Amino acid sequence: YTGSSMHRDHLHVEVSDAPELREAELDPQRVRQVLDNLLNNALKYTPQGQITVTLGPRPEPSDATTAPIIQPVTELQLEVIDTGVGIAAQAMPRIFEPYVRLEDRKLPRTEGSGLGLAVVRRLVDRLGGKMAVESTPDQGSRFVVWLPASHSATATASPADTPSTAQTGPQ
């Protein structure tokens, strides 16, 4: 997925990652499952528009009064943002329940079992992570996953290679 984009009819998908994550130790199979499920949902419910997938270190809070302290990546942030049909506020409490499918009259019937987001929630919990979702009907959704990352003893990246940015999303 690195730095790639794809086009499907009237849909643009942009994917980017961060090179500093290459030294982080994560469960690649489970992270891939989380990404696949979130991306599949975005593709299903975004008939046209844009999907953006970003994978990088979780931004650290910044303190404007002091110089930034460069530290190794301690958390991975995976973000999937789409301009799809969105999710109504009254449906939000149910979206992570197994077999829940939110049908939208504007879309043709979508395939799937309604397990995708339930699987994401379970995997994120097992990996010791957290997640958040924001959505507005007819405007799209933003799913953010934070997963703990450790570094191998053989990591060669220097602290100067790790950027520091302001934190976004819930604390």
Please state the average pLDDT score.
Answer: 77
Written as H for each helix and E for each strand, in order along the chain, the element string is EEEHEEHEEE
Fraction of residues in H or I helices: 10-25%
Q: Uncertain spans, ≥5 residues at pLDDT below 50? A: 153-171
- How far apart are the termini? 27 Å
Shape: globular
Give a short account of the largest sheet. 6 strands, mixed
Going across the biggest sheet, name each strand in turn. Answer: 1-2-4-5-7-6
Strand content is: 25-35%
Gyration radius (Cα, Å) is: 17 Å
Q: Count the beta strands.
A: 8
Alpha plus pi helix count = 2
The assigned structural class equals alpha+beta
Helix-strand blueprint:
Blueprint: E1 5-8, E2 11-16, E3 24-25, H1 28-44, E4 49-57, E5 75-82, H2 116-126, E6 130-136, E7 140-148, E8 150-151
Parallel strand pairs: 2-4
Antiparallel strand pairs: 1-2, 3-8, 4-5, 5-7, 6-7
List keywords for this structure.
27% strand, globular, two-stranded antiparallel sheet, alpha+beta, single chain, disordered C terminus, six-stranded mixed beta sheet, 171 residues
Task: Report on this structure.
With 171 residues, this protein is of the alpha+beta class. 16% of the residues lie in helices and 27% in strands. The chain has two helices and eight strands. The strands form two sheets. The protein has a six-stranded mixed sheet with strand order 1-2-4-5-7-6, covered by helices on one side. A two-stranded antiparallel ribbon has the order 3-8. Strand 1 and strand 2 form a beta hairpin. Helix 1 packs antiparallel against helix 2. The protein is globular. It starts with a strand and ends in a 20-residue tail after the last strand.
